[in-house]
Amino acid sequence: MLLVDDIQLWTGHILKEFLTEEPEWSLISDLSGRTAAFVKEKDYSQEKWWGQQPYIVRKSRRLIRVSEFRQAVAKLAKGRIGHVTNKIKDRIKSNQ
What we know:
By secondary structure, the protein is of the alpha+beta class. The protein folds into 2 domains: 1-45, no CATH class; 59-96. The protein has helices at residues 10-21, 54-77, 81-95; strands spanning 2-5, 25-31, 35-40. A 3-stranded antiparallel beta sheet has the order 1-3-2, with helices on one face.
């Protein structure tokens, strides 16, 4: 069992969100909006890389999109319109 205290503060809140998305942990109770009680449901013997952590993947996608947008704007500023157009076409094809 794991208790995360001060979930009303950003650090406790982030830890609660992270553990809630991890398949090995289950949220048992949110006590008065200040403490979260978790229980570990299953063990894992290997170290996870960030791509195996749902919370990190979800949050990182937004950062990656912002980075891609900045790169596209920089290429447009340099007059590289064809490159940006091809990237957009590729993205549309991959989403279909």
